[in-house]
Amino acid sequence: MKFVILGNGSIGQRHAANLRALRPEAEIITADPRGNATHRDWRVALDIPGEITGVLICSPHDAHLEQIEAVNALGLPIFCEKPLWTIAQTADGLALAERVSVPFAMGFQYRFHDAFETIPSQVRLTFIGGDYLTYRYGLTVAETMTSHAIDLALQRLGLAEEVRFETDGIILAGEIVHQGGCCSAFNYDMECDFKISRIQWRYGSLELPKNNAAYVNELQAWLTLLDGGLRNPRLATLADAVAVQKVMAQCKAY
Prior knowledge:
- By secondary structure, this protein is an alpha/beta fold.
- It contains eight helices and twelve strands.
- The strands form two sheets. It has a seven-stranded mixed β-sheet, with helices on one face. Strands 2-1-3-4-5 form a five-stranded parallel β-sheet, sandwiched between helices.
- β7 and β8 (171-178) form a beta hairpin.
- α1 (10-22) crosses α7 (212-226) and α6 packs across α8.
- The longest helix is centred in the middle third of the chain and has 17 residues, at 141-157.
- It is globular, with a radius of gyration of 18 Å.
């Protein structure tokens, strides 16, 4: 059993540690151009001898599209961290999504938090988020911070009917009108002095903690799928990820 992890930053290292705990017998091969990995070149990592069980794409956002295409061509199962691709790659990404035929899971870990089931449906939800991340990810507030929230909104309220987002890459504000008439509102800041990830509704609110249990549970759901088991309904599909990307692509610059 071999897993290849493309990208050995914080999220790649988290997944590697969780894989070792869940599958102690597995061999884990990592790829990162910074040199803190098994290989510098991700293409070399995919060309190792022996059968590869699955590939985790944890690389910088703008590398996902090319790597998804390469891994799909090899017929290997994919677990991809958010975002699926950048907003600028939307047209090429939608074309690629039509060709992806391998088992696919998207890393929307909020689905696996205990709080997920407590978030109401068919009400107006407001998503508030903040962190200081531009130094690490650039002007990608939609991809880096908001994509999780968009996925939660689509899951709880239904697919998007209309999108009214504005962003300068650092701040994103606006709302989604969902099929059925419910709305979700968003206010995200990528240069905030404190970290926050909160969901509010008329009679309550909650903050989503970034605990490792959600990552472990999501990874276990993907491994179960690879083992031939049933797909956990919380495990995000390629179609779920594409729905989020289509919403993000409607952001208007200001």
